[in-house]
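Structure in, sequence out. Go:
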């Protein structure tokens, strides 16, 4: 999640709209599975990025409410 978002932020022209939409669709499956399994995806993103505001921006980009 964070790597794709970072790629998009660095150069939005390199990421096709279809790729963004597909990522969002895939996360509609992944996030509920994380919740069922007790995986704190926000904590994982925080560990990857080290920045709570960036985590919030990533989740907002994908349309994920935490």
């Amino acid at each position: 999640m964070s790597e794709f978002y970072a790629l998009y932020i660095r150069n939005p022209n390199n990421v096709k709209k279809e790729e963004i939409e597909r990522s969002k669709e895939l996360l509609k499956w992944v996030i509920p599975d994380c919740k069922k399994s007790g995986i704190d995806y926000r904590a994982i993103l925080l560990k990857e990025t080290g920045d709570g505001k960036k985590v919030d921006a990533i989740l907002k980009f994908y349309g994920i409410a935490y």
